[in-house]
Structure formats: C-alpha cells, structure tokens
Amino acid sequence: MKALNPEICFKLRDARRLAGLSQHVLAAEVGCKQSALSMFEQGRPTKLSTEVVEKLAKKLGVDLSAAAPSPDSLAAYAPGSGFCPNPQCPSNHAYQVAGRALYSPDRAAADPVGGRFCAVCGEVLERFCPNCGAPVHAGAVCSHCGQPYIE
C-alpha cells in the first residue's frame, strides 16, 4: 500500500461514525490503541501501521486504492509546510516563555522540498497540530488549541 494522505483518515473516521462504532470498540477490534485511532482520525496517517489501516478499511468497507496519493501528490505539500516533532532536532530552536521551554520549528530547514521526512534528522514530519489536528501554521503554538506544536 502506498503512503496515505490525511483525506483517507477523515474518510475512515466518517465511515466509523456512519457504522455507529466508537473509537474504543473499533480500536479493540482492529488491534490498536484508541488514542492512536483518535490521532489517525484527526488527519495523521502515520499514527497507525499499514496493517491496522487495512483492517480498518476492510471492517468499514472503504476502498484504500482511491485514497493513495499519486506520485505528483507531494506537490500538495509545499516546501516548509511540515515541521519536525523531535525537540532535539537542530531544525527546532528552543526559547523560554514565562519559564517554559518552547521550540520554534524551522520549517525551511526541516522540509526544504515538501517531503515526508525531516531533512535534518530523518523524523517523520508533522503537518497537523499533534494536540487538535488543525493544519499547522507559522509559529510555535497552534492558533486553534493554544498548545505548542513541540513539547
């Protein structure tokens, strides 16, 4: 199976809801944690293994072949749109606010070509807030939930 895009996460979430299944029940049936399923449904396809995603699709009757991105789909991710979630990565710059350590992601260093992995340390790049699932924007803190992207 090719890499998944966030749209398939939303498609599987909607199928689960239509089937009337809770995340807890479905996660137990396919062999993953409810928290991982929750993050997956927020648009973070790397949070579940390929095997678990295939089990989800089969259980919910969703065709994954239509959801796999084409080779040209990397163009959908503009350079600098992802950030490295690794606080020790040199692409993230530490600073202090009210005694709290925050990290300002340098998206141009981590994602110079719109790829999937950090160009500095190799970690899988994040394109959505790890707390609420909103698309990331410039800065260190999500404008939707107010939480820092990197803890």
Quick structural overview:
By secondary structure, the chain is an alpha+beta fold. Helices cover 29% and strands 8% of the residues.
Please provide a written account of the structure.
- The protein has helices at 6-18, 23-30, 34-41, 50-60, 107-110; strands at residues 92-97, 100-105.
- It is elongated, with a radius of gyration of 16 Å.
- It has a two-stranded antiparallel sheet with strand order 1-2.
- It is α+β, with helices and mostly antiparallel strands.
- It has two domains: 6-60, 434 Repressor (Amino-terminal Domain), CATH 1.10.260; 78-151, no CATH class.
Name the descriptors.
5 helices, 434 Repressor (Amino-terminal Domain), 151 residues, 8% strand, alpha+beta, two-stranded antiparallel sheet, single chain, elongated, 2 domains
Q: Return the average pLDDT rounded to an integer.
A: 84
Number of strands: 2
Order of helices and strands: HHHHEEH
Strand proportion: 5-15%
As a percent range, the share of helical residues equals 25-40%
- The end-to-end span amounts to 32 Å
What's the main sheet like? 2 strands, antiparallel
Total number of helices: 5
Gross morphology is elongated
**Domain module count:** 2
Give me the oligomer status: single chain
Strand order of the largest sheet: 1-2
List the helices and strands and how they pair.
Elements: H1 6-18, H2 23-30, H3 34-41, H4 50-60, E1 92-97, E2 100-105, H5 107-110
Antiparallel strand pairs: 1-2
